[in-house]
Amino acid sequence: MKHKAAVIYGSVRSNRKGIKAAKFIVNKCKEHGFDATLIDPLEFDLPLIDKMYKEYKNNDAPPALQKLADILKSADGYIVVTGEYNHSIPPALSNLMDYFLEEYFFKPSAIVSYSAGRFGGVRAAMQMRAFLGEIGTTCIPSIFALPKVGSSFDDEGNPLDEAVNKRSKKFFDEFEWYIKALYEARKNGTPY
């Protein structure tokens, strides 16, 4: 069975560099046999959250929100690609993710962090780990940090240093294990 992974990217800045990392992650997901979908907040153009998706009744959610809900509901796991803004996660990322809750329950998530500097956004990753736990997704132990993101990938997400590919193996092996394990566990039901 081909599992589905939603790659959730979080920047809407002009001249954004992290999109290269997000494309790399989508490509690696496909190499690992996942059906991967990139969720780019620029494509959904959601306003600042007023109502969560679940608060819309009778199929009256805006079309962009419904499309996003369909992607998240069908996903077996999530990889969040976050930059580091003031030692935290980008506001566009939290806004996009805050529209949903139950869609994340009992499915695994993983964190890819990046920055222009040498620390690879790890401070944002710590914030994201707490965020993911609160919305009900199980975050895998490994974090995949990508330093100097602007010069590490070409525009299509191909790494300019083979070491990036090598470092990604453990991360993706772990994510795949959690997707398969929790997929099987959900077949027997969930606590709620």
Largest sheet: 5 strands, parallel
CATH topology call: Rossmann fold
| Rounded mean pLDDT score | 96
CATH architecture: 3-Layer(aba) Sandwich
Could you name the CATH class?
A: Alpha Beta
Coarse shape: globular
State the fourth-level CATH superfamily: Flavodoxin domain
Can you count the beta strands? 5
Distance between the termini: 25 Å
Question: Ranges with pLDDT <50 over ≥5 residues?
Answer: none
Provide a brief overview of the structure.
By secondary structure, the protein is an alpha/beta fold. It has one domain (4-187): Flavodoxin domain (Rossmann fold), CATH 3.40.50.360.
Characterization of the model:
The chain is α/β, with parallel strands linked by helices and 192 residues long. It has one domain: Flavodoxin domain (Rossmann fold, 3-Layer(aba) Sandwich), CATH 3.40.50. Helix content is 40%, strand content 17%. The protein has 6 helices and 5 strands, in the order βαβααβαβαβα. It has a 5-stranded parallel sheet with strand order 2-1-3-4-5, with helices on both faces. Strand 1, helix 1 and strand 2 form a beta-alpha-beta unit.
Write the layout of secondary structure elements.
Layout: E1 4-9, H1 18-31, E2 35-39, H2 41-44, H3 63-74, E3 77-82, H4 91-98, E4 108-114, H5 122-134, E5 138-146, H6 162-187
Parallel strand pairs: 1-2, 1-3, 3-4, 4-5
